[in-house]
Amino acid sequence: MKIAVLVKEVPDAAVEKRLDPASKRIDRSGEKNLNPFDTHALEAAVQLKEGGAPVEEIVAVTMGPDSSVRTLHKAVSLGANRSIQLTDDALAGSDVNATGYALAKVLESEAPDLVLLGQQSDDGENYTIGAVVADHLQFPSLTQVVDLKLEGNTLTMKRQAEYGYDTVEVDLPAVISVGDALNEPRYPSLKDIMGAKKKPLDTKSAADVGIDAGQVGEAGSKTEVLAINPPPAKEAGELIEDADADVDATVARIVSFLEERKLI
Prior knowledge:
Layout (H helix, E strand, L loop, with lengths): L1 E5 L2 E3 L7 E2 L4 E2 L5 E3 L1 H15 L6 E7 L4 H10 L4 E5 L9 H15 L3 E5 L10 H9 L3 E11 L2 E8 L2 E8 L2 E5 L11 H7 L4 E4 L12 H4 L26 H14 L4
Parallel strand pairs: 1-6, 1-8, 6-7, 7-13, 8-12, 9-12
Antiparallel strand pairs: 2-5, 3-4, 9-10, 10-11
Helix pairs in contact: 2-5, 3-4
């Protein structure tokens, strides 16, 4: 059984998120890191293997520039056996549809039994890449999975819904986006960190995996950012003080304030 885990390089959480007004994209200068939501997908893959599932290998897959190699090293230190970097100038500016198509082409060449990824990216807060990949692969897809068990060729999963949980069974192959409540990702050991750079890393171009250049990049994207604007300024809050020691009046004002905003 082969598990592919999709991972992404994102700006480090300590770096203030900024938009580049020229490109209308996220400014990706500064320190970067492995998308923290993807660490839950890696942990899920490792736990399936450690739990006795017949997992022969875990492959970390990313699409990104040269710097994304560090992200793959981090993914390998967390349990992946090898990694694949899809990198090509033609991919720059790809939206979620184009990115999903490109990643699906890599996965087609790998033929995994299970594709795992985090529920969202920490930069664009995008939740849909798993569904796009699944659509191209013609695999079933499930999101917000917070519990999963594998028996034979069937995954039984608990999915977080608006008012509770759905229990769903899916036969493999499948694309599964996991929630951050699924597990607690482990920290890599120093030995794993040092050994990650020695594990196989394949670098592939768009042509290597048969990507149609007309379906990726800005020209191949189906969406376009027309403008970016700063969020509206935050309104000043209202301070309610009990200066006159009239507790009943103060409570009434607080209740009225909350009722006006339909908070109670």
